[in-house]
């Protein structure tokens, strides 16, 4: 394929506060080891630079990825890019205690300390989009957002986001300071946000950022066409347990048939489905390989009609998926369990 014919992600507004990003973002998590072994700095920076050269400008990281090393890597890549043309999204809220157990914290002093530390690691003076990564169900959301609002007023953060937040938490947070984006898992095999979260975001003018739009690589053939590597943390997700993968293979095979019809790969079709969910939807697939990155961006060329979307929804049904979507150890932190206590006045 010649580069002239290659699509460039259009620019879209994420939320109604004026935050403009590329319609397709890039999730940096995998670059420092999650599903595979980490890339060295040079290779990781090359992937980020290539994404930017193809028109991707929204880069998503978190202090817990690595931990810490992912932000440092993105910071090194940013030194080679025009800062004003890049939108940096990072997150706080998941921490490892002494025993290595992951806990969630949204206390105001913790929010501030995390923001200062992320700015240092990224080597920037303002985070474009700062998310609460998981919701602290012991701290009223008003207190967490109150501190984020101060960080916005101080010019350290431009826009505020939430990830895996419940409807009540989103509404209450938005009443304290406008929420620009909600990051949720959303793909053909993870559709639990459709009945409540998606309509609520649209009612409030909040953008939606789907993570794992390729089902953590499942729609790219991971676990079906290629083995899940021994060091991958996917072994902690029920859908990738051997007995469930055996059942889920049928879903991948159906996806292959549909992709043949649309003359694209199953991964491209899965990503195109997410891209077609609305102008306010900006998925952030990640990859460690430039060829997969190109393939993901090229999915913008796959055009789907309402009929196509309906057919895909009827062929790939969430109720046919075996196993939960989240790490067993962290399933209690998903949006369904993310209400916070009422603030004492």
Automatic annotation (TrEMBL):
<dbReference type="InterPro" id="IPR050791">
    <property type="entry name" value="Aldo-Keto_reductase"/>
</dbReference>
<dbReference type="InterPro" id="IPR023210">
    <property type="entry name" value="NADP_OxRdtase_dom"/>
</dbReference>
<feature type="domain" description="NADP-dependent oxidoreductase">
    <location>
        <begin position="23"/>
        <end position="312"/>
    </location>
</feature>
<dbReference type="GO" id="GO:0016491">
    <property type="term" value="F:oxidoreductase activity"/>
</dbReference>
<dbReference type="GO" id="GO:0005737">
    <property type="term" value="C:cytoplasm"/>
</dbReference>
<keyword id="KW-0521">NADP</keyword>
<protein>
    <submittedName>
        <fullName>Putative oxidoreductase, aldo/keto reductase family protein</fullName>
    </submittedName>
</protein>
<dbReference type="InterPro" id="IPR036812">
    <property type="entry name" value="NAD(P)_OxRdtase_dom_sf"/>
</dbReference>
<keyword id="KW-0560">Oxidoreductase</keyword>
<dbReference type="Pfam" id="PF00248">
    <property type="entry name" value="Aldo_ket_red"/>
</dbReference>
